[in-house]
């Protein structure tokens, strides 16, 4: 969830070498954007339930777009190399470390990340510490405990939430939230894995960094939650009873969070089992596992390595050795002697064709012991070869079979003790289940027998090497990505440095392929690990329209029994306890307590915004922006075309048009060949639309962007391929297009279920402004509805669609109005100009149509979108410019403060929602409130409506205000790698945001006063009075709301099929954020 509001969102790269696509750890965490997916309990890792629900989540990144996937998704997984141009600082001598109580175990220079790494052991407790030194200013700290759960009560997950709720030195309700509010962190979060819990922080500001480290260390070792049952109740579970005459219900942050996780055993917790957990067990788990002897600590960056040990010794010296390290040991599971099959039901909506909602997945546990690095790397290559791109054979054959609509759980998983491989399809009909299984096995057989195409091997090789060289982790700190790779071995007592050293194994793999041919390398792997591996578990999931209500009924029954077993006194006591907890939650921390959280002063904050070098010029009459930045010999480029002359009715075709450009092929090249060519010559090309309102203008910014990257020496190839994609691709492949449509529909349906808040936000924007309307047409509920009709139309009128696709191309492809954006070092920029010129000269001169004026919105109304769910997403939004509000930098501070205090306390803490937040889009003037996985509906709306009064009644002291300002600056100055800097600069150019204006906004932010808060109340009142409401919610809750407030909601039913949860924690306007960048005016 987006508590941490880093404007640029992230790409976490985690596992060892081969994490090419859609494989992120289920990074569950309490706050910033969280939650784990992977299989949970390591002891049951390969059981079908676990394997069947390896559901991955990526932090803040829109997976749905094929475009973004091809550019960032599959290329950013390798994140091993940190840029370092100066020699690393030297390490403390033996003496200093000794004096602080540490012995040096080993020391290495890791050339892959130009870092010096030392492994220490704290002598008294045995705690292990890795201290990595280099010149990366984005410093990272992380502490990791091995926490294998015994059951599905969710202890590790509840503990992960709870330790951040106050500690010995920081006795607040939530120091974590104070850090979010008032620090410059570039990362702040926590993750629960199936067998470990990680607490990482990052910052570029040294003082800030050490503040964060201290709060985290105190939190994990001395949390208040082990003495205070209220935290356990709040974060874990409790019975709630407001009045003895009412029904008892379950409440708890983790309980609600896991409601959508419907299956299996889970370190995250199963809502059926969470209420079995007692406070005693919870305390004992902390005592046993949150101990230095069971901890592994990571430091990374350009700070003083001696100081790191100094900080640690202060904490670690307070403990004696414990046997925790042995008791938390994770034992490998023996391989089964034969295949197994599991059939399970999952809750499905009643609408749609139930028959087509089956899914099947084949899972192999690859080995009963960890694999050596060579094998692991080779399996990673194999994974990419089989599944990494749309042209990869296993992926392509499954999707083209027409048997199902999207892959599930596909690929290698190597982050846990024993690696696994899974592949499956969803959206299949009952009678095709068998066929899918056969197709998978036959394809694997065929790949083992015939091997892979040479071009494909070369494309994978180049892709992998490019990723290694680029090491683009997005806004995910590089040091954290390294930590997660290292910990995947370290946590099992293996060498923590091995996973960071890829050069040698890569070289030798390449040599083996060159010498023996790829077949000799990969075929035996398929044979051994898959075809002849007896440990194969097939999971079939069958839709059950009754299951959701059945589960609800069961829960209700349990609660009724609980109530029936209570005496009148018990009930009175419970209602008193409920009241007490609520009161405690709603009582703010006293100012003295708040002061104890260390924070920066305003004087620590730079007075000027971060400037990106930017030069506007032209090449052959076309505007070109150049950003002279060190990029390690990589050229990043964007070519921007105007969408202004496109006909309205063609808008919803744009996403599929973009996908077709990359995945349909030309007269001379099949799409497989085109894809391989892109993989061999470049670091990736993507095409996608971008829309946004522009401050002070009526007409929106609406563009089509072609984005690409390559080594500078391959720039000519890059521009030739972009030209080929734009001009030569032919829209003739009806069957492929049909696949695109059904995959997109399936993706949208998943989004509706997992990220209802994004759908609601898009819907509200579509009512309020044109850019929002356009985005919604291309990625909201309207788009989903369009896809439903399009699916029919592909069969009936393919000619028509094909010529519409051509018409789209004609309408935007022109040098007129085109802008080229380039990021690389100055010399490389100059050297590539001739290729840009050639590319531009080949573009047509004029667009065919005239300029179309956009003026479309959805009708203003309160809408409720019905989906099968147990939790709601509730939104309300209005345009505060139209109420007379004039943009001021203080609005960023105020909206952040509203989210961090009022909404956090009311919607999350006492309301029981997983999140409540607000967003102010300064480009359009839209102020929106949203909740995430919310058990309430009208009650949440009342909280939104109370925001104005909250602001008027607010009394913020100097300290709180400073924190709010610093936190806002932290968002504005978020850490960016060079490609992100260049891209953000382009967006600012497109949205008319000048550096002068950024300076003004920054000054306004820095001088925000209480008076600004009070004045903002009026603007917020206009949202209360004139705003629109959109809720994505259950039928039951909507009915109840309409009963309480007759005709409040217009009910909108969506015909859709949903599958087992694949969550996305994304709160965003779909396209503005598409590549993970939100451009603020500052
Ligand atoms: Zn959580």
UniProtKB/TrEMBL annotation:
Superkingdom as given in the UniProt entry: Eukaryota
InterPro entries associated with the record: Metalloenz_LuxS/M16, Pept_M16_N, Peptidase_M16_C, Peptidase_M16C_assoc, PreP_C
Organism, as annotated: Capsella rubella
One MF annotation (Gene Ontology) recorded for this entry: metalloendopeptidase activity
Family designation: Belongs to the peptidase M16 family. PreP subfamily.
BP term (GO), one: protein processing
GO cellular component, one term: mitochondrion
Recorded coiled-coil stretches: none
Keyword terms: Hydrolase, Metal-binding, Metalloprotease, Mitochondrion, Protease, Zinc
Subcellular location: Mitochondrion
Name of this chain's protein: Peptidase M16C associated domain-containing protein
Pfam family name, one: Peptidase_M16_C
PANTHER family linked: PRESEQUENCE PROTEASE (PTHR43016), PRESEQUENCE PROTEASE, MITOCHONDRIAL (PTHR43016:SF13)
Needed cofactors: Zn(2+)
SUPFAM superfamilies per record: LuxS/MPP-like metallohydrolase (SSF63411)
SMART domains associated with the record: M16C_associated
Residue span, Peptidase M16C associated domain: 541-790
Record's keyword annotation contains Transferase: no
């Amino acid at each position: 969830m987006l508590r941490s509001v880093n404007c640029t969102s992230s790409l976490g790269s985690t596992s060892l070498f081969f994490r090419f696509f859609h494989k992120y750890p289920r990074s569950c965490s309490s706050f910033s954007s969280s939650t784990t997916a992977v299989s949970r309990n390591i002891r049951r890792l390969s059981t079908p339930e676990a394997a069947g629900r390896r559901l991955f989540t990526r932090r803040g990144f829109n997976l749905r777009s094929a475009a973004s996937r091809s550019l960032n998704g599959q290329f950013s997984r390798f994140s091993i190399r940190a840029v370092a141009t100066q020699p690393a600082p030297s390490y403390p001598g033996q003496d200093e470390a000794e004096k602080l109580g540490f012995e040096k175990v080993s020391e290495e220079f890791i050339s892959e990340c130009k870092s010096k790494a030392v492994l220490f052991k704290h002598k008294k407790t045995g705690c292990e510490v890795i201290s990595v030194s280099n010149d990366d200013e984005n410093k990272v700290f992380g502490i990791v405990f091995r926490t294998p759960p015994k059951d599905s009560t969710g202890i590790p997950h509840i503990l992960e939430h709870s330790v951040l709720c106050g500690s010995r030195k920081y006795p607040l309700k939530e120091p974590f939230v104070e850090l979010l509010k008032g620090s410059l962190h570039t990362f702040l979060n926590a993750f629960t894995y199936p067998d470990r819990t990680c607490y990482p922080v990052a910052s570029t500001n040294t003082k800030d960094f050490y503040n964060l480290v201290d709060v985290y260390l105190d939190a994990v070792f001395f949390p208040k939650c082990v003495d205070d049952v209220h935290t356990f109740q709040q974060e874990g579970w409790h019975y709630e009873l407001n009045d003895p005459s009412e029904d008892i219900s379950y409440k708890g942050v983790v309980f609600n969070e896991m409601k959508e996780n419907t299956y299996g055993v889970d370190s995250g917790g199963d809502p059926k089992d969470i209420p079995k957990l007692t406070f005693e067990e919870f305390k004992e788990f902390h005592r046993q596992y949150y101990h230095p002897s069971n901890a592994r600590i990571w430091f990374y960056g350009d700070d003083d390595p001696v100081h790191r040990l100094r900080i640690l010794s202060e904490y670690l010296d307070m403990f004696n050795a414990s046997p925790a390290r042995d008791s938390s040991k994770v034992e490998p599971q023996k391989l089964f002697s034969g295949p197994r099959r599991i059939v399970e039901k999952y809750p499905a909506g009643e609408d749609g064709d139930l028959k087509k909602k089956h899914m099947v997945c084949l899972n192999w546990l690859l080995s009963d012991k960890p694999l050596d690095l060579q094998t692991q790397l080779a399996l990673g290559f194999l994974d990419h070869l089989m599944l990494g791109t749309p042209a990869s054979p296993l992926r392509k054959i499954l999707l083209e079979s027409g048997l199902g609509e999207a892959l599930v759980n596909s690929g290698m998983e190597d982050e846990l003790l024993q690696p696994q491989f899974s592949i499956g399809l969803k959206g299949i009909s009952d009678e095709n289940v068998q066929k899918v299984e056969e197709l998978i096995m036959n394809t694997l057989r065929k790949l083992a027998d015939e091997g892979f195409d040479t071009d494909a091997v070369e494309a994978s090789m180049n892709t992998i090497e490019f990723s290694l060289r680029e090491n683009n982790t997005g806004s995910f700190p590089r040091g954290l990505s390294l930590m997660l790779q290292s910990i995947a071995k370290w946590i099992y007592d293996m060498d923590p440095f091995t996973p960071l050293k890829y050069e040698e194994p890569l070289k030798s793999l390449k040599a083996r392929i060159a010498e023996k041919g790829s077949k000799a390398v990969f075929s035996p792997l398929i044979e051994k690990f898959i075809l002849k591996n007896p440990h194969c578990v097939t999971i079939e999931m069958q839709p059950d329209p009754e299951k959701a209500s059945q589960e609800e009924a069961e829960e209700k029954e349990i609660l009724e029994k609980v109530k029936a077993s209570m005496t009148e006194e018990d009930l009175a006591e419970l209602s008193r306890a409920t009241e007490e907890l609520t009161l405690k939650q709603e009582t703010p921390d006293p100012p003295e307590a708040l002061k104890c959280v260390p924070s920066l002063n305003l004087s620590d904050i730079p007075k000027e915004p971060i400037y990106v070098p930017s030069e506007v010029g032209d090449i052959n009459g076309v505007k070109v922006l150049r950003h002279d930045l060190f990029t390690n010999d990589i050229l990043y480029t964007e070519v921007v075309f105007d969408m202004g002359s496109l006909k309205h009715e063609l808008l919803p075709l744009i996403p599929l048009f973009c996908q077709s450009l990359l995945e349909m092929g030309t007269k001379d090249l099949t799409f497989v060949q085109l894809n391989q060519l892109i993989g061999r010559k470049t670091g990736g090309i993507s095409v996608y639309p971008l829309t946004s309102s522009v401050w002070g203008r009526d007409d929106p910014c609406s563009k089509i962007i072609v984005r690409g990257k390559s080594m500078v020496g391959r720039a000519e190839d890059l521009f030739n391929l972009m030209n080929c994609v734009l001009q030569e691709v032919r829209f003739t492949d009806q069957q492929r297009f049909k696949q695109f449509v059904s995959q997109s529909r399936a993706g949208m349906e998943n989004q509706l279920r997992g990220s209802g808040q994004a759908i609601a936000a898009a819907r509200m924007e579509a009512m309020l402004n044109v850019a929002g309307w356009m985005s919604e047409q291309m990625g909201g509920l309207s788009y989903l509805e369009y896809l439903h009709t399009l699916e029919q139309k592909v069969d009936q009128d393919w000619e028509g669609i094909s010529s519409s696709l051509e018409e789209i191309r004609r309408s935007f492809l022109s040098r007129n109005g085109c802008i080229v954006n380039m990021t690389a070092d100055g010399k490389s920029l100059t050297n590539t100009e001739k290729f840009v010129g050639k590319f531009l000269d080949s573009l047509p001169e004029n667009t065919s149509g005239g300029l179309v004026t956009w003026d479309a919105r959805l009708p203003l109304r309160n809408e409720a979108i019905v989906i099968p769910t147990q939790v709601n997403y509730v939104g309300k939004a209005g345009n505060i410019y139209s109420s007379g509000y004039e943009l001021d930098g203080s609005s960023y501070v105020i909206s952040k403060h509203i989210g961090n205090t009022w909404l956090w306390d009311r919607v999350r803490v006492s309301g029981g929602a997983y999140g409540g937040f607000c967003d102010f889009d300064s480009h359009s003037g839209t102020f929106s409130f949203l909740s995430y996985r919310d058990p309430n509906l009208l009650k949440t709306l009342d909280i939104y409506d109370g925001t104005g009064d909250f602001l008027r009644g607010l009394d913020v002291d100097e300290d709180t205000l400073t924190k709010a300002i610093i936190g806002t600056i932290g968002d504005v100055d978020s850490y960016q790698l060079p490609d992100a800097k260049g891209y953000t600069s382009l967006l600012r150019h497109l949205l008319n945001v000048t550096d002068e204006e950024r300076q003004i906004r920054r000054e306004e932010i820095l001088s925000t006063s209480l008076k600004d808060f009070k004045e903002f109340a009026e603007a917020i009142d206009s949202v209360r009075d004139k705003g629109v409401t959109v809720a994505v919610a259950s039928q039951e809750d909507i009915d109840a709301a309409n009963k309480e407030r007759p005709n409040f909601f217009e009910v909108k039913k969506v015909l859709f099929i949903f599958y087992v949860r694949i969550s996305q924690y994304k709160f965003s306007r779909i396209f503005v954020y598409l590549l993970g960048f939100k451009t603020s005016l500052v």
